[in-house]
Specification:
Layout (H helix, E strand, L loop, with lengths): L26 H13 L7 H12 L5 H22 L5 H6 L1 H4 L4 H11 L2 H17 L5 H13 L5 H13 L2 H10 L17 H15 L17 E7 L4 H6 L6 H4 L3 E7 L5 H9 L21 H7 L3 E6 L8 H9 L13 E4 L5 E3 L1 H13 L6 E7 L7 E3 L5 E3 L2 H22 L3 E7 L21 H4 E9 L10 E3 L5 H11 L12 H5 L8 E3 L3 E6 L2 E6 L4 E3 L3
Parallel strand pairs: 1-6, 1-9, 2-11, 3-6
Antiparallel strand pairs: 2-10, 4-5, 4-7, 7-8, 9-10, 12-13, 13-14, 14-15
């Protein structure tokens, strides 16, 4: 100890494991990209899954080779997590639909690929990459990434819902909450009152189950006809891919066909975004709305609209402007909707379009005229026709003179369809035969898309897709409706159509000299806006749309 001084050196060693914090590295860019998409409303972020993934990437691993191996193993996990965070259909849905997708024409597949290429999004990704590479020279990006993850993930529910839930818990005891849920009922035929409970996942789920329970109690009565029944025909024209939003997008909302109608439903909900479920729901219109899972099971007695008419003396028939083979549509419709085989020999008609799978699509006017010619030669006093058209289906192509095809834009196809329907209705009027015509779209075409799915994708039954124009025309009545169409502004669905058909079942509308049009539409059943596919449900609650994907919780539909 020179100079009498005492020097003590203390050495505090870092634990071996903590010497190997290496940060997230390139995975910072992965999470930053997610934050950007989340900020723009293009991502459904799962907080716990992302925190777990980041933690697995951050755990110190002393051997460099093990650290590098972890990055390699994390790649498929990161891809799967990114897909899980998107609004795309569940992977199981893609696997089950792979066989159907394989039947798409090459032209249609290329068109779909092009839709997924978003040039502005690619530009934004490039800017994000350059910014990250530049700033990472001076900043430890992992610190900011982890901080952002915690900020986003800790409030695991959207802030408005969390706030409302806290307020609700503060002012309601558990007993009061249970009582409110027990007494909360969906909209009835008399009124549509908003439930007072906040839109938590539990409350939304309880409201959905209350809706199903209430719908089970509803059914249209078709009493036997007493006295003389005036003969008439009923035509149900079921149109694939037509919504109010589509009409607005192509500026055809004011087509002359709409001015010729007697009744227009302004707020009709198709309840689904795919064809076969839409057809089943329409054919089972005489009962309340079922869950999607119940559509492929036998319904309660009296649910089949055409079967109810058959018991009243109507013969039933079916016609399509396509072969009905894709996805087993025709077989499904006949099995689940109690329909006969198609009667129109479409193979003898000239092909108008190539469908998205390369199969033929015939012109609507040709098919309807062929059915009408057959109908005039049959002795049946009353006939009910179910007609389905896919003229507007995504991916259809025009046939060109050299035998090839070209992309068929939606607007000219819709113009041709509406013109054909106008011409056909004029032909019915000239015949003098009494006819009730119901024009009922299956769902929209999703021309505009939204933040959850690109244009043309209909996995999620968004409000724009399921809000469809439903039209009613009575041909041959002695007292035609004067003025413009009767507008039904109440929230409606298939049960309202079944009720109209029941009120017209005796045909007196065509023989009575003073038919009461207001009585025909008075107090029609109202139905809440609940729409679903096998993987998602969209429901309106307190006038706002909410969505549930698979078994995940409810959240407000992104605008």
């Amino acid at each position: 100890m020179p100079g009498g001084q005492f020097h003590e050196e203390s050495h505090i060693e870092t634990p071996p494991l903590l010497r190997h914090w290496r940060g997230l590295g390139i995975w910072n860019l992965y999470f930053l990209a997610k934050f950007a998409l989340l900020w723009g409303g293009f991502l459904d972020f799962h907080p716990l899954a992302n925190l777990t993934f980041a933690a697995a990437l951050l755990v110190p691993l002393p051997p460099v080779w093990l650290h590098r191996l972890r990055h390699i193993v994390a790649i498929p996990a990161g891809v799967a997590l990114f897909y899980y965070d998107t609004w795309l259909p569940p992977a199981s849905r893609l696997l089950t639909g792979a066989e159907e997708i394989s039947k798409f024409s090459t032209d249609y597949l290329l068109e779909l690929v092009q839709r997924f290429i978003d040039v502005p999004m690619i530009g934004a990704a490039l800017v994000l990459l350059v910014a990250y590479l530049f700033l990472s020279q001076w900043l430890r990006a992992t610190v900011f990434t982890v901080a952002a993850l915690l900020y986003v993930a800790l409030p695991s529910l959207p802030k408005p819902i969390v706030t409302q839930a806290i307020v609700h818990a503060a002012v309601n005891t558990p007993a009061q909450t249970a009582a409110q849920l027990a007494t909360a009922t969906p909209a009835s035929d008399a009124t549509a009152k908003a439930a007072p409970l906040p839109p938590t996942s539990a409350n939304l789920e309880a409201h959905l189950q209350a809706f199903y329970k209430y719908e089970k109690t509803r059914k249209t009565a078709f009493p036997p006809i007493t006295g003389h029944a005036s003969p008439f025909d009923l035509l149900i024209l079921n149109i694939c891919s037509l919504s109010w939003a589509d009409l607005e997008d192509v500026n055809l909302s004011n087509h002359p066909l709409f001015g010729k109608m007697d009744i227009i439903f302004d707020n009709f909900n198709s309840a689904t975004s795919y064809s076969a479920p839409a057809g089943i729901r329409l054919l089972r219109a005489s009962c309340g709305q079922e869950p999607h899972s119940a559509l492929y099971k036998p319904p309660a007695s009296g649910c089949f609209l055409l079967e109810n008419l058959h018991e009243l003396g109507f013969t039933t028939s079916l016609a399509l402007n396509h072969d009905g083979k894709y996805g087993g549509y025709l077989d499904t419709l006949r099995t689940q909707g109690q329909l006969p085989a198609p009667t129109v020999k479409t193979a003898q008609l000239p092909r108008a379009l190539n469908a998205f799978d390369g199969s033929p699509v015939w012109r609507d006017l040709d098919v309807l005229n062929a059915w009408w010619q057959q109908r005039q030669q049959t002795p049946a006093q009353r006939e009910a026709l179910f007609y389905n058209t896919i003229t507007l289906h995504d991916g259809n192509r025009f046939i060109i003179p050299n035998g090839g095809s070209k992309r068929a834009e939606y607007q000219p196809r819709l113009q041709a369809l509406l013109d054909d329907l106008s011409t056909f209705l004029a032909e019915l009027e000239r015949s003098g035969r009494p006819v009730v015509v119901l024009i009922v779209p299956e769902h929209g075409a999703a021309l505009r898309g939204d933040r959850l799915q690109i244009a043309g994708l209909r996995e999620i039954p968004s409000p724009d897709i399921t809000h469809v124009p439903v039209l009613v025309k009575l041909i041959g009545v002695k007292t035609p409706h004067q003025g413009g169409p009767i507008q039904i502004s109440d929230q409606s669905s298939f049960l309202a159509l079944s009720e109209i058909v029941s009120r017209l079942r005796d045909g007196k509308a065509f023989s009575a000299p003073d038919f009461d049009w207001q009585a025909l539409v008075k107090d029609l059943p109202k139905t809440e806006r609940v729409s679903e596919t096998d993987s998602s449900i969209v429901m309106f609650y307190q006038n706002s749309p909410y969505i549930r994907l698979g078994d995940s919780g409810w959240q407000e539909y992104p605008h």
